[in-house]
């Protein structure tokens, strides 16, 4: 390349030496004007930042050729040529750089927006878990139900103790009842004898006294027993309410955590794997355009005599350099409250599911064990009315355990079955109902 340039310059010099001295400035001016016009044509074709670099580099090559011939001798440049060169400077510094400023700011905004998206994933899950958030409200509702359940457990404990005490007192009294005295034979059937018999009978005295004491202690035990039954019933109802509330909260929390994982993963992956590489490439392209543009501008300024040194000074590129923000750390979706020791007794969240019609039977671990739960499970699938167990017993002809029979596949019609024979066999018109613990 050096040899080619040397030969070209040698040829130009040799040809120029053959010309008349009077013609050299005019011929040089024509050549320079032609090159400047070509330079202007190159720059005018720039349609956007994407093609700026190639055009600026090509224009610099043309300008280098002019500088090689003329240096910064302005007598080879016409006024129109000088105006054209000045317009090139304006185009570079005002139009191209301004367009790159817009692209630069757009990329910075995209980075900030992507970071905000990631931060929003963290903020959203934090807000939802806060006392004011929907998950926080659900958590508090379960805690309130647990507090009431604890109170009712205390009532059950008190009633149990009272029941035990009443029974022990009643039983001790019964064990300590003195043997009944012998019932004397009926005396002579005269008024004096019978008056004494009925007024002073030791058996009558014993019976009357023991009956009164027995009745008091028996009634106290019966009342204590009924109070305990009522306390246990209230506790069982509250436990069902607490369990339902807990399982609703658990389902919402687990779904929220899963959604948060997807939100954070997708947003951070987009930022790291897609946006940052793209913006980095665009930033580097703009920096290269800035270098090429500043070089071209300096060459023109030197050609016009506005710069003393042809060497381009160090180019500042920080105008288009981007400091990439760091991704925030992943927030926490806390599932640990689900396993807190405060949930007494522990909660089993059961989901009921149906198998295909004509299959038998539920997996052993998923079989419903009682007729009562079978009725509850059928509410999951029954529509148009309450669950109804139409068959309850033992049969080898239908699926074992809990099942639903329907002739047309409709959930609004049909009948529930409870087969205490846990094996049984498949029926085309019956589908088994099973349970799974979450």
* Spatial gap, N to C terminus: 76 Å
Sheet with the most strands, sense and barrel status = 5 strands, mixed
Percent of sequence in beta strands = 5-15%
Helical content, roughly? 55-70%
Count of strand segments: 5
Strand order in the largest sheet: 1-5-3-4-2
Q: What is the ordering of alpha helices and beta strands? A: HHHHHHHEHEEEE
Task: Write up this protein.
This protein is α+β, with helices and mostly antiparallel strands and 438 residues long. The protein has 3 domains: 2-127 and 286-320; 128-271; 350-437, no CATH class. Helix content is 61%, strand content 8%. It contains 8 helices and 5 strands; from the N terminus they run H-H-H-H-H-H-H-E-H-E-E-E-E. The chain has helices spanning 2-17, 24-44, 52-70, 79-129, 134-176, 191-199, 202-303, 371-378, and strands spanning 350-354, 389-393, 399-405, 415-424, 430-437. A 5-stranded mixed beta sheet has the order 1-5-3-4-2, covered by helices on one side. The chain is elongated, with a radius of gyration of 49 Å. The two termini are 76 Å apart.
């Amino acid at each position: 390349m050096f040899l080619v340039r040397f030969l070209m310059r040698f040829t130009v010099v040799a040809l120029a030496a053959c010309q008349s001295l009077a013609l050299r400035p005019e011929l040089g001016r024509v050549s320079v004007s032609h090159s400047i016009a070509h330079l202007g044509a190159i720059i005018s074709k720039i349609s956007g930042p994407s093609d700026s670099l190639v055009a600026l580099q090509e224009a610099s090559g043309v300008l280098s050729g002019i500088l090689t011939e003329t240096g910064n001798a302005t007598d080879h440049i016409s006024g129109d040529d000088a105006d054209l060169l000045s317009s090139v400077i304006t185009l570079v510094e005002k139009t191209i750089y301004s367009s790159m400023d817009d692209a630069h700011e757009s990329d910075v905004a995209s980075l900030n927006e992507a970071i905000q998206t990631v931060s929003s994933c963290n903020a959203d899950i934090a807000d939802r878990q806060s006392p004011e958030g929907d998950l926080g409200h659900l958590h508090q509702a379960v805690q309130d139900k647990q507090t009431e359940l604890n109170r009712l457990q205390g009532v059950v404990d008190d009633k149990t103790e009272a029941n035990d005490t009443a029974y022990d007192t009643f039983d001790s009294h019964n064990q300590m009842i003195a043997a009944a005295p012998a019932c004397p034979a009926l005396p002579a059937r005269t008024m004096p004898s019978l008056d004494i018999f009925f007024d002073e009978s030791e058996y009558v005295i014993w019976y009357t006294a023991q009956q009164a004491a027995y009745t008091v202690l028996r009634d106290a035990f019966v009342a204590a027993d009924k109070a305990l039954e009522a306390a246990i019933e209230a506790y069982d109802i509250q436990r069902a309410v607490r369990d339902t509330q807990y399982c609703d909260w658990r389902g919402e929390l687990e779904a929220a955590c899963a959604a948060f994982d997807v939100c954070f993963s997708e947003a951070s992956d987009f930022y790291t794997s897609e946006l940052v590489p793209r913006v980095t490439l665009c930033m580097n392209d703009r920096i290269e355009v800035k270098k090429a543009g500043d070089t071209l501008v300096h060459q023109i300024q030197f050609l016009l005599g506005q710069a003393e040194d042809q060497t381009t000074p160090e180019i500042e590129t920080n105008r288009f350099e981007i400091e990439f923000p760091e991704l925030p750390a992943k927030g926490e979706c806390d599932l640990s409250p689900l396993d807190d020791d405060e949930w007494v007794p522990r909660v089993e969240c059961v989901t009921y599911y149906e198998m295909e019609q004509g299959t038998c039977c539920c997996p052993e671990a998923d079989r419903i064990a009682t007729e009562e739960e079978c009725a509850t499970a059928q509410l999951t699938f029954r529509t148009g009315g309450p669950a109804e167990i139409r068959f309850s017993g033992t049969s080898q002809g239908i699926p074992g355990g809990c099942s639903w029979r329907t002739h047309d596949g409709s959930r609004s019609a049909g009948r529930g079955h409870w087969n205490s024979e846990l094996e049984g066999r498949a029926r085309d018109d019956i589908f088994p109902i099973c349970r799974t613990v979450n």
